[in-house]
What we know:
Layout: E1 18-19, H1 24-30, E2 35-36, E3 40-45, H2 51-62, E4 67-72, H3 79-84, E5 92-95, H4 100-113, E6 116-122, H5 142-163, E7 166-172, E8 174-175, E9 185-186, H6 190-196, E10 199-212, E11 215-227, E12 234-241, E13 245-246, H7 248-259, E14 268-271, E15 274-278, H8 280-289, H9 291-304
Parallel strand pairs: 3-7, 3-10, 4-5, 4-6, 6-7
Antiparallel strand pairs: 1-2, 8-9, 10-11, 11-12, 12-13, 14-15
Amino acid sequence: MEANSSPLIPKTPLGVDVLPTGSLALDVALGIGGVPRGRAVEIFGPPGCGKTTLALCILRQAQRDGYALFVDAEHGLSPRYARACGLDEHTLLLVWPPDGEAAFEILALMLRSKTISAAVVDTVAALAPRAEQFLPAGETRPELYEQMLSIGLRRISRTLPQSGAALILLNQTRSRLRRPQSGAVTTPGGMTLKLHADIRIALQPLGTVSTAPDRRGLRCQATVVKNRFAPALRAATLNFVYNEGIARAEDILDAALQIGIVDKPGTIYMLGNQTLGKGREATIETLRQNPDVLEHIETLIRRSLPPRLVSLEG
Length: 314
């Protein structure tokens, strides 16, 4: 089945198929209801900010109408954690490439086959050039990495638009060598990856989430720093819960506040004339205990997202 043949795939007003991220707040911030299919998206941030968890949530959405590919360049993904985040191991293709060239060859092959709905590379910074293993110990040649990345991205960019798959490139942040004390950071890949990515999302930890002794996670801010389909520099707050993924009640509440469906005069959360609760934690607990109210708010949010329209090519 081709990834772009499902009737469940929403389209932007520009005729671009989109894949929901699993977070309504982030879908609203992106402006098109998700990440675009047939395009590259870069998600970057410091260690432990939820990059892999967000990527797994996107793959979970992609598995609804096809296979999902996870290129584990870091060799660090736990299949048990992937299952805990809701992924189906029967439609998850997990590969461990020996080098960067092999990773791009696998990507190109799967994109040409049109059998996957989304692909994730975790991470771009961990892709090692094939020629690097023949260098003497301690010797480094940065131009090998830049050349590998430039050629690999250029090749898959030819088949990506026709594949119907969303390409998610996870990346790390580094302190600038010339100004390590200034706090300025950069991402591996230089301008090559920045130019090829249609959307760039920066993740920044805000604190921890602990609503119960056995329910802990991370709260972070996702900022869309580049967007070729909608206005950029929009932000969303994501709540990652370990062994769960994105916390649904918190995410829906944040999205409703972002677009004005839920008002917050002072510390009280209001849905029209209905009081949801006083304080954030009490409101979230109310939504969990009233799934019908939660479903109603989610329906209102989805109605505000871009409608499904016929592609301009049609």
